[in-house]
Amino acid sequence: FVRLAVILYLSDAMIRKREVLGTWNLSLAPQLLVLGVIALLLTKQPDMGSVIILFLISAVIFITAGVNPLQLGLVALAGLPILILTQNYQITRVEDFINSFLYGQPLTYQINQSLISLGSGGLLGKGLDNSTQKLEFLPEPFTDFIFAIVGEEFGFLGAALVLTLFLVLVIQGLRIARNCDDDAGALLASGITASIALYAFLNAGVVTNLLPTKGLPMPFISFGGSFMITTLAGIGILLNISQHHEIKLLRSGPAEVRSGRLRQNRRRIG
What we know:
Largest sheet: none
Structural class: mainly alpha
Number of helices: 10
Number of strands: 0
């Protein structure tokens, strides 16, 4: 729930402080303090992966708002001390990931089983509910490693379709952010879209051994309660922003719409 709360908070804060974005102590310092407290609480769980994703989402909102890149660099440096709290098992995961490329094969049981699951699916898969890896071979098959089961049951084409649908969703989210005639709505849309994109593609990267192992759910697919609720809430907000924009377009004249878009394009990333 804090993920969605941070997106809402930062979107509002950046709008209220848009006149002083170039002033460190008035623009980024208060937001950095809030993010730092949240990061420390997450680190104590411990959940370093969520800390990293939270800061990446925040960076997207900051960039969309027009924050100076040098200030973002200072934010990244300020977050480095949190790495001191990194647990031994988290360091081991990174070492195993690096060694898997050095030795040409994964060294961890979970990643091995994940790749077996993906490989056994072939092109078209074994069929719905015909996975064997989820029968206590692959740990966390319904949450963190659900994408491996998708690949086993629906094959390469099914897994590619899932990633393509996420890509379409991300492109639509960015389109909504770019075309939104309200700055706060544009920041909200950017943050929500970034959140979905990061969780989806980082989860796929972990399952396919392209990233170090981290327990991240895949939006809309992984079993879970709070993550599903907050993700659906984010989609609801995104749809509301899109609907509001379409209504405004109908009420605005063509010239007004064009001039509004020109003003937006000078401030936002596409």
